[in-house]
């Protein structure tokens, strides 16, 4: 996998805080910032509330919604079972 450089500007207080956090995490400043930035980006993408469906795929999406439900035996057994916390 190739990598590239991403430059970020921070003030002295922010840099000091980031360096302290990286030391506490026993990692380099660069690795700490990369890992936290990626974690934050993943959360941002996962929490997206608006879903965009291209017009070209809209009819296909509606057909999927209108299709009869599929019976999945494993899910039916799971739904019929008593949850562990209720036993």
Automatic annotation (TrEMBL):
Single GO molecular function: DNA binding
Taxonomy of the source species: Bacteria, Pseudomonadati, Pseudomonadota, Gammaproteobacteria, Thiotrichales
Pfam families: TacA1
Top-rank lineage group of the source organism: Bacteria
Stored InterPro entries: Ribbon_hlx_hlx, TacA_1-like
Family: Belongs to the TacA antitoxin family.
Source organism of this protein record: Thiothrix caldifontis
UniProt KW keywords: DNA-binding, Repressor, Toxin-antitoxin system, Transcription, Transcription regulation
The name this protein goes by in its record: Uncharacterized conserved protein, DUF1778 family
PANTHER family attached to this UniProt entry: COPG FAMILY HELIX-TURN-HELIX PROTEIN-RELATED-RELATED, CYTOPLASMIC PROTEIN
Biological process according to GO: regulation of DNA-templated transcription
Membrane-spanning parts: none
